[in-house]
Specification:
By secondary structure, the chain is of the alpha+beta class. The chain has helices at 7-20, 67-83, 104-121, 170-179, 186-193, 201-207, 220-231, 246-255, 259-265, 306-312, and strands at residues 29-31, 39-40, 47-55, 88-98, 124-132, 137-145, 161-165, 212-215, 234-238, 272-276, 287-293, 297-301. It binds magnesium ion. The site of magnesium ion has 4 residues, from loops.
Amino acid sequence: VVQGERMRDIGEFAFLRRVLADLPQGPEVRVGPGDDAAVLDLPPLPVVVCTDVLVEGSHFRRDWSAARDVGRKAVAVNAADVAAMGARPVAVLAGVVAPPDVDVAWLMELAAGMQDGAADAGCSLSGGDTVAGPAITVSVSAIGVVPGATVTRAGAHAGDVVAVCGRLGYAAAGLAVLTRGFRSPRLLVDAQRCPQPPYQQGVVAAAAGATAMIDVSDGLMADLGHVAEQSGVRVTVELGRVAVPTELEQMARALGVDARTWVFGGGEDHALAACFPTAGTVPQGWDVIGRVEAGAGVDVEGWPDWSTALADGGYEHFRR
Ligand SMILES: [Mg+2]
């Protein structure tokens, strides 16, 4: 990449040639990038597809995140959605809108980040498109296969236990740090720049008999609210069962906020939350945090004013 080179200098085709030059493709990819469309060899299994869009200013800021982080995150959020259905990500496709004066180097790094994200999730970046437009917009679609059972948000039953796998609150803590103008601690800031979802655990949970599953993108309570609503049940989380990591406690104390609002209200870590028929069926690496009951809505047992606290913390309010 030539220093200072802009997209308007090289055009779309030259850019795509550079990006696609040596993108590794997994065994399921019969035709990779460069043709009219990619061709995948998928076994006769249910196929999961999803898409997600990130817009500069709303979902990322170029002064907070490197292009590589943005690309990696764009793939991660989609692969997490695939995992949350009990599926294994196979391929992702990317659509990128960028102003003509954007640095070619920035877009090359964006593509490299997408490749990193695909490698993290064990899938291939198998195609994409790039067009000129007013704001940087990154759209990624993911394709996955379901080796066992598909797990939706709608299958939880009264009597199930609720368990989580992955980080909660780190990305929100990182956002709090960044919005106050700090760039450290790196653990938290990096968690905001790019999540590390437990991709393989989606299939594991499905094999263990998960009745419902979701990835935590909007916040633990908000997302369990989606499960409660779509399953027609009530989800009760027990405060004492949800770990508040020391790193978050320390940062929250320094900033004068309640770390629990990050853990219960912060999204973007893309942990997996799932319901299982009994505590004995919960896979290793998952922590039981609550239970499913007859009724509606969500509650935190042991934290009477949790809903107000999360709303005060700036998270979208939702009814119990
Ligand atoms: Mg999701």
